[in-house]
Amino acid sequence: MIELALDGDQWQPKFLTINPFGRVPVLVDDDFTIFESSSILDYLELQYPTPCFLPTDTKTLTVVRMVEMLTLHELIPAMLTLIRVTNKNAIEQANQQITAMLNFLEQQLNNSLYITGDQISLAEIVAGSLIIWLPYLNVTLSSHPKVELWCNQLMQRPAWQETQASPRIVQDWLRRIQKLPKIRERQWKQIREAN
């Protein structure tokens, strides 16, 4: 595993040969390179199917995919708005999107340990890995007790604890995310000028 500071490392020529978009994460498995989180998760699930994180039942699989897509298209943009934007209306709309996502997850949990019942799935990996960051954005989970319990249980898993960032790293990451659009613009300009 190689960590990047995201303060310009991702725009170095060596990294751009791996991912021309300058984004993380990237997975290199032997001679096969994959970027974009969803594609990486799908690849890992198919290439290394044990343990299995995708249900085979059509409806349950659909719920997992729905949670993944809602996380990508609703939760992440709303979280980025809370990190980067100061406009009151935009922040209010972002909080509404996050609340809608939390309400949806609260319904899906339906007194189950996990979103799909009693087995962890990609829904937990995708949504859970972001929901646990909401308190850093001053979003409380207390109005969603099932989601709060679900998050607490996820964070107690040994694999989860081994891979989670410390609070210091999270705060540093939040500061970098605030600056990322300006850094990205500057780096793209340098790349264009070099060509």
Tell me what the structure shows.
The protein is mostly helical. It has two domains: 1-50, Glutaredoxin (3-Layer(aba) Sandwich), CATH 3.40.30; 58-162, Glutathione S-transferase Yfyf (Class Pi), Chain A, domain 2. Helix content is 63%, strand content 4%. The chain contains eight helices and two strands. It has helices at 13-18, 37-47, 58-84, 88-109, 122-131, 145-156, 158-163, 167-194, and strands spanning 26-29, 32-35. Strands 1-2 form a two-stranded antiparallel sheet. Helix 3 runs antiparallel to helix 4 (88-109), helix 3 (58-84) packs parallel to helix 5 and helix 4 (88-109) packs across helix 6. The longest helix is centred in the last third of the chain and has 28 residues, at 167-194. It is globular, with a radius of gyration of 18 Å.
